[in-house]
Every structure is written in C-alpha cells, then in structure tokens.
Write a structure and sequence with these properties.
The structure is a homodimer.
Chain A lengths: L1 H12 L4 E4 L2 H8 L7 E5 L2 E6 L4 H7 L5 E4 L4 H11 L4 E5 L4 H7 L4 E5 L2 H6 L4 H21 L9 H14 L10 E4 L20 E6 L2 E2 L2 E2 L2 E6 L6 H19 L8 H13 L11 E3 L6 E5 L13 E4 L2 E4 L3 E4 L2 E6 L2 E4 L11
Parallel strand pairs in A: 1-5, 3-4, 5-6
Antiparallel strand pairs in A: 1-2, 2-3, 7-8, 8-11, 9-10, 12-13, 14-17, 15-16, 17-18
Chain lengths: 353, 353
C-alpha cells in the first residue's frame, strides 16, 4: 500500500529502521483496521499488526495484505516487546503520543526514540480514496442540514434543533455526527464551544450551527449562522457581513505554495480593520480528515507550513460579542494543484428567518 | 467537595504535595467540568483548574467553588508550568497516562513523579450522587430496549435493529448510546466485539445485543441474547442455559470483602465443567461509571481486590462457538454493605422469537 511506502520514505529520511505506531487513527490510515485495540510496527524486518483475540476476525477482514497480523497472547505490550526483540529489533522509534506508562515499560526492552507527527504529516496530503470519503462526508452533512433548515425559527430550542440535525445526519448513512453538534442562539452564540441548551430561539437572535458528518472514518466540518428577525438587528447584520467578507477573502487568498498563515492574516486583518479584532479569539482553520482537527493548523502561528496539493482544511473566521451573540462561517477547502475547490456548497449569504 | 478531600488523603499516604491530573474523566469527577480541555492541580499550595479561553464561561458554571479557575494564556502546558513554579511547586506527581510528549516538556520545570490510578482507585467506590446517575443510565437503557424488543425477529438486519435501539436510547434523554451498540446474529454472535452488519436475522440464529445509556456522564452496560426459532437449536439452547447458570451463580457468589476473582472463578468453573471453557475468552466483568470499562476488573487476574461497599460492576459470562454463534448475559451489580443489588432488571430467561 502506498501509504506505508510513504511512511517508509519518511522513516528513511530520519534514519529510523523500526517504528511503533499506537495512534488508532494512524493505524486505520496505514492498514485499514478500524477496531479499538491494535499496534503497528513498520520496520526493515517486516511490517506487523498486533491485536488481541477479540479482533482476530476483524483484522483478517480489514488489514491490508502486506502487513502480517499477529494475535497477542497475554499482556500485549509484553508480547510485542518479546516478539520484536526476537526478530532482532532493539532500537525502536515510537509516537510521542504514547503514554508515559507504556513508554516506561517498553524502555526496558528497547532503545526508544520518541518521534512527533510523522504519520500526521503524511496525512495532511489526502489521496483519492480519502477525498471520495471526505466529499461523501460533506454531502451527508449538507443533505442533513437541508432537511432541518426549515426548523430554524423563533420558538424552537437549541437542543431540539440539534437533535433533529443529528438524526438527519445519521439518516444519510453517517455512523454518527462528526462531533457534538453546536446549536447556539442569542448570547450563547458568543461562546465558540457552546452546548445546545433548552433555550428557545428568540426574535433578534443570531444562531450559530456547527456540525459535520462521517464516511468510512472521514469527517466533514462546517458552520453556518442565521438571524431570527427582530428589532435592533443592525449590529448583528454588520458583524455577519464582516465575517462573511473575511471568509470569502481568506478563501480567495489561498494559493498553492504560499505560506498558510497568510490565509489567517487575510481573515484577521478584515475583522481587525472593522474594529472587532479582539472578538476573533481562535485560529482561522484546521485540517480535516480522520480527525476533526488535524494538521495543517491555519493560524498566525503556522510558521513555515505551505499550502500544498492534496490538503483539506477549514476556513472559519468568527466574531463573538459577549452578551450580544456571535457569527462563524466555516467552509472546507481542497487544494488541487493550482485550483482551490470549496467543498462546502451551502449558501452563506445572510438569511434572516 | 468530598472527592477532592478523598484524593488529598490518598496523596498524603503517598507523600505527594502536588498532583497534576490530566484525564478528563478524572477532572469531571473531581471538579464537575465537562469540557474537553482542562488540567487540575491539587496541592498544598491550593487547588487550581486550568483551561483555555474557550471554556471560561463553562468552567465558571461547572467547576466546584473550592477550586480556583485559571485561564491559560498562550501555550497551556508552558503557562501551567510557569504558574506552578511561581507559587513554589517544584515537585509534581502526574498521572502516568500523560503522553511522553507532555511528560518530557514538564520534566524541564519539575521533578516529576508518574503515579498510577490514584483517582481511578477512588472512583471504584461510588457515592450517592453517582449512584443516582448510574441508576438513571440503567433505566434509560432498559426503557429503550423495551421499546425495540418487538423488532427482534427473522428478517430484520443487525444494523437496522441497532439503529432503532440507538434512537430509542437518545429518546430517553441519554446524550448518546454509552458505546457502539452491538447487535450480532448467527455466526457474527460468535465474535464478542462484532459490528452490526446488513445481515438479516435468520431462523435458528442466536442474537446478542450489548448496549448502554448515559446520564450526566455516567454509563450503563448490559447484554441480552435471544434465539430465533428454527431447527437444530438444541446446542444453542444448551449454551444459553449454561451461560445463564454462570451469570446467576456468579452474582449469587458475590459477598462483601471476598476476593473479586472468586466471582470470575464461579462463572468460569460452570462453563468449564460444561465443556466450553475454551470458548469463554474474556474476563467476567468490569467496573462501570464515568468510563464504560473501569476498575475493578472482575477476572482471574484481579489478585488482591476485594468486593467493597460502593462498587458497581458487570457480571457477563459468555460462550462463543465459531461458526455456530454465541451467548453473553451481562448484568450490572451494586455492592451496598452486605447486600448485593442487581441493577439490571430485564428478563434473562431464554426467549425464543
């Protein structure tokens, strides 16, 4: 499989002969195994997938054939250490997300070298099979949203709208919503991570809805904001349109091989110049794939990262005014050579309900 | 709050003056914070909850008042290290589930001492507030099951039954199912961790359903098995009744202060003497609370652990015959002084559908 070959190239550059992968998303990416207990070793002595007896059948069905499946007997960590020592592996690179506890146990059998984000780095560039699933996850999220959009109106509670959206997401074939769906209205919309409450949508409320769907483990992530008609809504319309400008300008500013932080700067400058800089407290976006938040980070702190063919990330500027409300508009974009494709297709012009 | 006082007693016994807790379930248990980013320090210099700006409002609402809330500026790990150094903390115990990466960073500011399962140990003894939620989670799971029980019949797919059960669980008020609901029929029932498939239930199939619900973060976990009427079902009836005997005998064998491994032995001996010992490949049970699987482990390897007032755990013997099917019957029990209460109330005598 190409993905393991890519990993071996990364390992070669780092002079690593044996690498233990523990992150289950990385293991799924590299082998296809979707269960909840497994360890992968990629090495010049062979590639091995270790799991326990519960996942024997599933690993036979899922794990790609170039990788040898080994069923652990007894304590898995101990078993793996002995197995690898027996085939002559004494030096082992290991993902630094490993727990101290496991690190400490393995350090008795190997010269360990903790390494950072090797597979995550490869995962920033999506291949065609991944893009099929990401597009499917976007379609599912959008289809579900269209189903429930008519319910955005005065009187409905945040929790009830969220429940309808979650049900619609599952009906599209998505195993579950991609994350805890956010429906935040009125002053709750000023909290970027609000939990849907029993609050009813009221006249004049801004409503922020942030949701996503899934396809074969791949996620989508999008946000739309709406305004419930009412009095004194001028300021809310103003911040909506500033955020919309920031979103559109940031997407327009994306160009292949440019520094990714310039996307953040474009969005941030627009919001800053409009006088709301201090109310945009988060980064402009993040990669999306097998994790909802993955590399690349689209922020002012993304120092040397360049926009690269195959990347998929969000563009999601926002303004959050305490005790007033908030707006965030989040699209997913895909970099395809010179062209920048916006995967999200839902309307983002202000709709007053 | 009593829970932090209990923790301080544990810390005192281990001569620990400052303890950094990273496990979010442990943080929820100790403080009430339910968000996804936070760190808790319990120390003789004060108790501090650290989070980032996104969770400011939520932490003010949720975190108990004896703990001081601190909003990190910039990189949280760096901020916390400086904060603690500034108030004179130089030695720090830390949960050994910490990632190597974080451990390594903090080791530059502290003499670190990784510790194992301190809070998890306290969590094995449930207090009254926890029991209210666990009982609620059991009631929700049972109510949901009664709603869909009529659908267990020839022709329905595993996935469709699982979807109905999941929907019913959400309708009870449970935020989500406690875990990925298992519906496994026919030869799939021989896999303890099967994923619901498009397979239809057929005449003569054993059907294993393993599900749970939630209440304020606390879970329930239960399994029932059914038989679809058909020919050649004698062996299936036989293994059902062996597992049922093992379940009943294991629950009857529970007594306060006895070694917990005797419960496993009771169940295992019955299955072994019936000739199916090799087809019962997992432990007899596990604690349930804020985690679906938590301490105590009910297995032959649970060396010195005693049945203690306040424990909640499952009793779930099973037999899995490759290419035939399987049975698991799982109840939750609560230890209340001398009395053993079975929380699960659903019928467990064989029902042939």
């Amino acid at each position: 499989m190409n993905r393991i070959i890519n990993l071996k190239e990364s390992m070669y550059k780092r002079r690593t002969n044996a690498f233990l992968i523990l992150n289950l998303r990385n293991i799924y990416y590299l082998t296809g195994f979707s269960g909840s207990s497994g360890w992968l070793v990629v090495s010049n002595r062979g590639d091995f997938f270790f799991t326990d007896f519960r996942y024997k059948e599933q690993s036979l069905r899922e794990v790609n054939r170039d990788v040898e499946i080994v069923i652990c007997k007894g304590d898995c960590i101990k078993f793996i250490a002995e197995f690898l020592n027996n085939i002559g592996i004494k030096k082992l690179s290991i993902e630094d997300c490993v727990s101290y506890k496991t690190y400490n146990r393995l350090s008795k059998s190997f010269a360990l070298r903790p390494v950072n984000d090797i597979v995550e780095q490869i995962r920033t560039i999506k291949d065609n099979e991944e893009l099929v699933n990401i597009r499917q996850a976007v379609t599912r999220a959008e289809d579900a949203f269209r189903e429930i959009k008519g319910w955005i109106k005065e009187g409905i509670t945040e929790a009830s709208l969220a429940r309808r959206l979650d049900d619609a997401i599952r009906t599209t074939g998505s195993k579950n919503p991609a994350f805890d769906t956010i429906v935040a209205s009125g002053i709750n919309a000023a909290l970027p991570h609000a939990t849907p409450s029993q609050k009813q949508m009221q006249s004049g409320d801004l409503v922020v809805i942030d949701w996503g769907a899934e396809s074969n483990g791949y996620f989508s992530d999008m946000t739309r904001a709406f305004l419930i008609n009412g009095s004194n809504i001028e300021k809310k319309i103003e911040i909506y349109n500033i955020v919309l400008s920031a979103n559109i300008a940031a997407i327009s500013s994306i160009s292949i091989n440019a520094l990714i932080k310039t996307i953040d700067k474009t969005a941030r400058d627009i919001i800053k110049h409009a006088g709301y800089g201090e109310y945009f407290g988060h980064g402009t976006g993040h990669g999306v794939g097998l994790d909802i938040h993955e590399k690349p980070t689209v922020s002012q702190y993304s120092k040397h990262i360049k926009v690269t063919h195959g990347m998929v990330f969000t563009v999601e500027p926002g303004i959050y005014l305490p005790n007033v409300g908030g707006v965030r508009i989040e699209d997913m974009v895909l970099i395809r050579g010179d062209s920048i494709e916006t995967l999200t297709s839902l309307n983002k012009e202000l709709e007053i309900k």
